[in-house]
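User: We ran a pulldown and think these components assemble together. Before we commit to crystallization trials, I'd like a predicted model of the whole complex to look at. Sequences follow.
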Amino acid sequence: MANSIHIILAPMHGYADALMRSTLLQIGGLDATMSEFVRITHTIHSPNVWHQKIPELQQQSTIPCAVQLLGSDALTMSENALIAVACGAKWIDVNFGCPAPTVNRHSGGAALLQYPQQIETIIKTLKERLPQNIRLTAKMRLGLSDTTPAIACAQAIERGGASAVTVHARTKDEAYLPPAHWEWFSHIQNSISIPVIANGDIFSVADFYRLIECFPTENIMLGRGMLMQPDLAKQIKASVSGKFVTPMNHDDIVQLLRDFFTQAQRQHEKYALSRIKQWLPLLAKNYPQIQSIIAPMRQITDAETMISFLNQC
Ligand SMILES: Cc1cc2nc3c(=O)[nH]c(=O)nc-3n(C[C@H](O)[C@H](O)[C@H](O)COP(=O)(O)O)c2cc1C
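Assistant: Here's a predicted model for the assembly, 313 residues in total across the polymer chains.
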């Protein structure tokens, strides 16, 4: 039974942007976050791009935000990583799991799982070029259509010099179809000596306990579960240390949505409207009353109406 647990917020492109990361961090329970993947093609992104995508780099938070890179060319990736580090990054993660076809056409993300040698080269190049104090990790799926490459890829990540590997326990072709194959955490951990961070389908405190029955670990990454239940990390942490924390209820969630909307509005009205509407269906999975506000909220097209709607919820 785990008596301490380290919880990372999963990178979620289009969902876990800086505002969502800071919203979830404030609730508590998270030890680290990870940026949405940053695509690396031929361009060397300017400092402005890094600061805009990951404002945390300029903040002095004790909770680190890993910068996730997605690409296939080791040199361009390392050039970009060095700029991210100059902008304040303390932790670089490499994505070997993204299933999106546009990404895979350029041999980034999960496509690289076919080529453990290339994975090793990318990690090794980053390791050699980055300052020693920069944490380097990777995040992988189990394979493309089957799990054959899983062990070889995890070993390549270790040989390259990463200090941990997050495993999203599915193949690329499985996309997000349940179940995640948690038994693979042990298979992989038994073949490498760096820690495996367990990821996939941890949606509740009960799921967490089922996971550690299957794979006793102190390192987990939570993605969609945090969007469905924003205090999930806090609940897991409390439970592991034998404490009880009152779970967030419907009213707490509505207040969270009000605060989120107000913050988002500072960026742009359209952005705020789309982000809140996007989040609702996920929250509704855990807070059934939210279901009834999805349809009326979809009709709202301006911030003023949204605020008065949220005030009546
Ligand atoms: C909308 C969405 C966007 C995602 N974007 C990324 C990403 O940018 N980088 C990455 O490594 N994984 C990404 N993932 C995968 C998640 O990080 C995570 O591995 C996956 O959702 C399984 O964890 P969960 O069951 O806790 O959600 C994304 C997942 C979703 C649902």
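The mean pLDDT is 96. That may be worth checking against your pulldown data before setting up trials.

User: Thanks, that helps.
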